[in-house]
Amino acid sequence: MNQPAASLKLTLRILLAAAGIVSAVTIWQMVLGPGAMSIRITDYLCAALRSDNPGLRKRAAWAVTRYPYPELVRMLVDGVLGGEAAPDAREAFVYALGRIGDRHSLGAIESVIDQDPSGYVRAAAWLAAARCDPEHFRTLVATRAAAQAAWDRIGIAQGRLQLADMRGVETLLRAARDGDDAQRYVASLTLFKGLRPLLDTAGRWPADCGLRAGQLWPPAFVDEIERRCAALNLQAIADDSLRLIKSIEATQREVRRITGARDELAEVLVGE
Length: 272
Prior knowledge:
It is a single chain. The chain is an all-alpha fold and 272 residues long. It has helices at 3-19, 24-32, 36-49, 54-64, 70-83, 87-100, 106-115, 119-132, 134-143, 150-162, 169-178, 181-194, 196-201, 219-230, 234-271. Helix 10 (150-162) crosses helix 11.
């Protein structure tokens, strides 16, 4: 191996090792220079959010949750307020606003709850509201009760489960068993992510069920989970789990930031 190539490989190893130790911002500034990361990613995601391909717009919205620069968040808000025509992509836009958790987006999220013709999108907006502002979410639930359709009830149940409020579990179990395919999918996925860990904690999740995230729950399995839930004080288990989660979430965020920096740096170095 010639000297320049060996030197380059050594440099890459050093940079990748460093990415596992220091923060994402520091690493990106080291590689691209101050401010370069923001400009580069914003330009790319702006173009993707304006793409003619709704699938690409959807994936770009998910990416904005990792890079919530003001210009990109404004594009998400404009999209949920009517700029995005495809319901599947619009759902991703409002989902992303919830993951970002900026209370300034609540007006747009509330507009989706009140006006969007797609129940699938409204369900995502209920969850987004719970993530942005739990108290405002509870107010919306109390003041919109008369107009709740099946998808709205699913969205409210998702929001409650997100807030460790077990009153939504029965609604989600019913949707996972009796809803249409889309409702069964959303309810099954939400229960897998939110209810399964609690049943695991209590030693009551069926170890041999063979189900994974994203799979529909068979009606017989839903019935079995419903029976197991009825024998537990789910709210007490959720309260204990929430206290534990809060005690470790700061560490989890730092780990995600460090590993994310390493992966992003590797992509840039390989791509260039």
